[in-house]
Task: structure prediction
Amino acid sequence: MSDTPQTPYQILGEEGIRTLASTFYEIMDTLPEASGLRAMHATNLSPMKAKLAEYLIGWMGGPPLYADKYGTVCMTTPHEPFHIGPEERDQWLLCMDKALVQTGASEQLVDMLKVPMFRIADAIRNKEGPSSATSNPNIIAAG
Ligand code: HEM
Result:
């Protein structure tokens, strides 16, 4: 029981998370549905692969590599210059979803990540939009 994996970091390991982050950007680079998201990023995605990996390693329960290097885990500020509405958020989540499938993530891991991944992506969203829960009049209990 004690050696049952408890965190995504324990399941994937550092190398697994680095592969996930690289795969995420490779998918973003080529997926037509993510072309808007791709256009927001610099031509060279290598620095982003490393940064996302460092961020996710800490976020998934491993050593806080991003926090140690950059002094924060706040993702609001670095995303402020970009227009991030529900469409951009969903493009990001689509790429992550496909990256998890492509890297062979187990159902257990996908289940574990689904809600927290949505929450962090939605927290980074800085614009309203038609598919945003907070602006959808049909979702009475939102918030
Ligand atoms: C919600 C949709 C999101 C959009 C549209 C988005 C877009 C971007 C863009 C355009 C950049 C700058 C890239 C560059 O400099 O070339 C960036 C940076 C970054 N993003 Fe996102 N992002 C999103 C969600 C996320 C999420 C959910 C995470 C983490 C789980 C994340 C982690 C990062 C990191 C670590 C950086 C680098 C920040 C730094 O400069 O240190 N992003 N993102």
About this structure: Helices lie at 8-30, 35-39, 46-59, 65-70, 76-79, 86-102, 107-124. The chain is about 60% helix and 0% strand.
